[in-house]
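Please decode residue identities from the backbone states below.
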């Protein structure tokens, strides 16, 4: 079934050309993009890709912890290496600090090359800038043919289907086609960061550029920087250019003043702005306090603000006007915009966007709609938490 873009005031914009002009990144046609919701869909698809790989498996992740799913990935990666695949696994040294060391041994025993991204050595005074700048990317590429990106980490928290507070809500995408080269480049960008290990460009196998579908995509690879990062510029542009509706789901919320103003300004020009953030099951209460400091202004200006109450909401999704979507590792916070390496897939396809919007509608059933007056009457403890968390505002 073909889904037409929104008609009327929201229709008519040439989004691929607009984004190309603003960001200097041309869209890549000829892709197949499949939306995967929650661990029950995401993990089996990723494991099948690893198990079916014939030559290469590349994985970079911020979170790789422990549990059944972590063991299954370690076994699949080790098995792939034993059958002759070049298997490379890169884990952020801060995000993966809770990882079971036995899993690393299991992968290495099978022949996988497992490394830490910017490790923090014991007994060595670390460079503060390097420690703060992490890779937050979640990318798997197999044989240069299929790639995955989104918000999921390798841990049991993501298993299941977000049926209760123990099963986190998240979204990933599986990509086939020329855009996989962009995901592969994002992995290589982080892999080559290790200055203690030689990097050989001649050893890198080119990704397949054969068309696999009809979806246009842009892979946005963003590195840690101050000022107008690529992802910040993208998000600001999407909000400012939206004509009918902006939908954002984010695990963590801490926008700078310009992004906050853009959201409020969009409402004033008649755009429906819907924001969804974690509620009572947020995994980082201090970070949640920090984001809540901006809730009052958003609610007063007419933003539709919801908190997801079924489990921890970890997805990072933006849809605009039913016409395009951004899915990836970046949150609507300053860490993603300034301090961490991120990777997002921008999709120009109403059918893919319709799936994401359908999932958003379903998630709305498990949210609380924040009331402006009730939020204005929030208690002293809440206000104190917001004030204290503001001390670390630029780092969250």
């Amino acid at each position: 079934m073909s889904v037409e873009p929104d008609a009327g005031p929201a229709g008519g914009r040439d989004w691929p050309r607009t984004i190309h002009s603003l960001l200097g990144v041309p869209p890549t046609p000829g892709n197949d993009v499949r939306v995967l919701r929650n661990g029950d869909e995401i993990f089996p698809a990723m494991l099948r890709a690893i198990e079916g790989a014939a030559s290469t498996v590349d994985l970079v992740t911020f979170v790789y912890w422990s549990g059944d799913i972590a063991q299954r990935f370690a076994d699949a990666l080790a098995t792939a290496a034993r059958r002759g695949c070049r298997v490379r696994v890169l884990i952020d040294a801060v995000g993966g600090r809770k990882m079971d060391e036995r899993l690393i041994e299991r992968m290495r025993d099978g022949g996988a090359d497992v490394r830490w991204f910017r490790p923090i050595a014991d007994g060595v005074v670390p460079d503060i800038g390097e420690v703060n700048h992490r890779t937050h990317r979640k990318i798997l590429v197999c044989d240069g043919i299929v790639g995955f990106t989104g918000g999921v980490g390798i841990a049991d928290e993501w298993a299941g289907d977000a049926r209760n507070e123990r099963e986190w809500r998240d979204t990933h995408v599986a990509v086939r086609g020329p855009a996989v080269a962009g995901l592969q480049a994002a992995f290589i960008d982080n892999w080559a960061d290790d200055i203690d290990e030689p990097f050989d460009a001649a050893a890198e196998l080119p990704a397949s550029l054969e068309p696999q579908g009809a979806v246009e995509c842009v892979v946005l690879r963003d590195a840690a920087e101050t000022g107008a990062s690529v992802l910040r510029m993208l998000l600001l542009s999407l909000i400012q250019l939206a004509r009918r509706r902006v939908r954002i789901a984010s695990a963590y919320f801490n926008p700078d003043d310009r992004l906050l103003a853009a959201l409020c300004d969009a409402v004033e020009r008649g755009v429906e702005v819907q924001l969804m953030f974690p509620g009572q099951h947020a995994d980082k209460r201090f970070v949640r306090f920090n984001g809540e400091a901006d809730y009052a202004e958003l609610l007063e200006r007419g933003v539709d603000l919801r908190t997801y109450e079924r489990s921890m909401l970890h997805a990072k999704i933006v849809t605009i006007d039913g016409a395009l979507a951004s899915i990836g590792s970046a949150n609507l916070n300053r860490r993603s915009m300034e301090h961490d390496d991120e990777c997002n897939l921008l999709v120009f396809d109403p059918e893919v966007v319709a799936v994401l919007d359908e999932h958003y509608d379903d998630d709305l059933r498990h949210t609380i709609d924040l009331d402006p007056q009730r939020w204005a009457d929030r208690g002293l403890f809440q206000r104190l938490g917001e004030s204290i968390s503001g001390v670390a505002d630029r780092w969250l």
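Observation: The two ends are 42 Å apart (CA to CA).
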